[in-house]
């Protein structure tokens, strides 16, 4: 069969256009599918972490208040040797405790009750202070008669579990949700037992109204039909919008379950249908398919109508399309013709523009560190290539590199958990970003960050580093170890960028960082040695002066 030139051109045009467009379309759809599904899942995880942080903040506030109240009671006992000696002394000190509670408990917005109860063996069955919040619209607490502890069995959780369970455990304890029949409320309790010379003297506790927590969880909506619920420390339902408490909830294959641990031993759980997580992906894929079909229809129509006059332009278009097939998005469609061939070239340009936009969006996700929000190792490698190119083109003649490495991350992870370790990294990164506002910052490893200095930041790097050290010192007395930032750093600068390699500059900064890290460790050891001796002497004096009552 003999083919005309027109037929050959038409076959070539349609084949090249079809192959190129479909290849790019399939690759784009695969990439979009993977990235959007991951992004949707990460979005749900971020929401779960945010809600978990809110609840943990509530629990931490109540824990801090309980510890403070217990410390106040211990201080009263230490100051008054006759605290438990007689009824008058006990009543006087109890009144002081009540005064402290009424002046401080109003800060506990979610608390149902606050109490200090003494052992019935040394102070009687009703000794202590008990305050209950009747109306959550009002922050004040009402004094209530303490429960007679001796009236109930130690196994009666609903009446006296809040007293006996922490005493048995021997340390501050979160009690799982239960019905407290003394105040007829469903609550969770945080209780700290008090001991004097290894003998129980009572408990200090705060009750949180569980209903305020469940109301908040019931309002949470994830995508269209997703929801949240609570599990206890054994995986059973503590609260669910539709299921009964105490059941074990097995997630079906069409649902995704994201669980975040809470500081009181429970878990915050999110349930979302996979179909809703994939909805954004499906929409983008549909748009991509429609775009490809429209593009194919357009190119086919133009090729059929004008095949006689497109031999040369068609070859150019084919070559540029092949570049796009191989992933080279620098393809140029600069055919300046005021006819259908020119329109076809514009269509290819539009396709390249939209695909470039999609690829830039996906590259932004790929270059971002998911934990800290700064640029990651992949972005760092790309930036170094750009920096080298600017150096060779004489656009940059001087620059600096700061290598930063957080200290104590492993100890925080091992001692307080990876959740607090992540918060430590986030806090460290925030400080770095606050100081080096005008410089690119990268997280290139688990605990390692890089700052590239140019322009004014390079010129003022000494002042910036002084501010950075002040920022670190300002966190030294923070309440928690993961808020006490400690970062070793090393800097290297060059005024003649072409006279040395980027790798050499990095190695100098890295070596300086390790020197700084060793110096910081030695300084910390010296501080510990300087403080251990006075503390040991003070502790000995307290033990010698302490009397037994």
- Approximately how much beta-strand content do the residues carry? 15-25%
Radius of gyration, taken over Cα atoms and rounded to an integer in Å: 34 Å
CATH superfamily of the largest domain: Reverse transcriptase/Diguanylate cyclase domain
Written as H for each helix and E for each strand, in order along the chain, the element string is: HHEHEEHEEEHEEEEHHHHHEHHEEHHEH
Note the main sheet.
6 strands, antiparallel
The largest sheet has its strands arranged as: 3-2-1-6-5-4
Give the count of structural domains: 4
State the separation between the terminal residues, measured CA to CA: 115 Å
- Structural class comes to alpha+beta
Amount of helix? 40-55%
CATH class of the largest domain: Alpha Beta
Number of helices: 15
Describe the 3D structure:
The protein is an alpha+beta fold. It has 4 domains: 5-42 and 282-364, no CATH class; 80-212, Beta-Lactamase, CATH 3.30.450.20; 220-277, no CATH class; 377-538, Reverse transcriptase/Diguanylate cyclase domain (Alpha-Beta Plaits, 2-Layer Sandwich), CATH 3.30.70. The protein is built from 15 helices and 14 strands. The chain has a 6-stranded antiparallel beta sheet, with helices on both faces. The radius of gyration is 34 Å and the shape is elongated. Residues 542-549 have low confidence and may be disordered.
Topology:
Layout: H1 5-79, H2 87-104, E1 111-118, H3 120-123, E2 128-132, E3 142-143, H4 157-169, E4 173-180, E5 185-196, E6 199-209, H5 210-218, E7 227-231, E8 237-239, E9 255-261, E10 267-273, H6 274-277, H7 279-305, H8 311-325, H9 340-366, H10 377-392, E11 399-406, H11 409-416, H12 418-435, E12 441-443, E13 448-453, H13 455-459, H14 461-474, E14 487-494, H15 502-545
Antiparallel strand pairs: 1-2, 1-6, 2-3, 4-5, 5-6, 7-8, 7-10, 9-10, 11-13, 11-14, 12-13
Helix pairs in contact: 1-2, 1-7, 1-8, 1-9, 7-9, 8-9, 11-12
